[in-house]
Amino acid sequence: MQLTGEIILTPKNMAALSPSEAYLWHYIQDHKQLVMNCSITQLSEKANVSTATIVRTMKKAGYSGYTDFRYNESNQKDSKAHYAILNHVDEQIRNVIIQNDVEMTNTLNNLKISVLEDTIQLLYKANSIYLFAKGLSETVAEEMELKFRLLSKDAEFFHDSNIMEQLSKTLISNQDIVVFITLNGETPELVKTAKILSERDIPKVTLTCNANASIVKYTDELLLGYCTSTNLFNQFEVSSRLPLQIMSRILLDTYVVRTQEQK
Q: Which of the chain's termini has less CB crowding within 10 Å, N or C?
């Protein structure tokens, strides 16, 4: 079996999607094999959206319509990478594996070199780097803190809401930079802190997977990943942080390359 092609929406186009269009987009990403066998009417019924919503979403993705999308996806099928393990697993495990490929592929395609380069310059020039995260995203922030320190860069990670707020109100200066690591960009404490920093004109970078997140309007540089809506631990908020890990690794490795060039 070969993987189906992936549709890639840019961060700009993702932000332009209405809530119903964004829902449809995620539905298509999570049910690609099913969708490829559906007519526009069948997809409308299964996703519980109008056919007009489907057409609008496809056009924002760069296609002339749903038929054009299916045609392009079909043509891409044979050119996609083949993973040997997929020959030896059942459909459920295959979907689990492919989900990782979907998140990786979409995250890489979302990244913009201009954003990476600008972010690296902000980090390089900053006196101190403050890393703010909550929940499972804290592990990504901890790794970033360690790597920055190994590069002799002053960096500190915080997760306590009161400490983050107080630092943002007083101690952090416009010669520093704050990096937010947040999967959905809606964590109230982080959004509140970002707003405070924005009012004080403190440089801010955000790693998230939600182009429409509340925190986005307060950020200066946005690294946007892609996270599928599938969560097998559905009673808990433990969604994959793979997109955040990919972006943080690329950001840190690129930082090393560029800063070595400047020495």
A: C
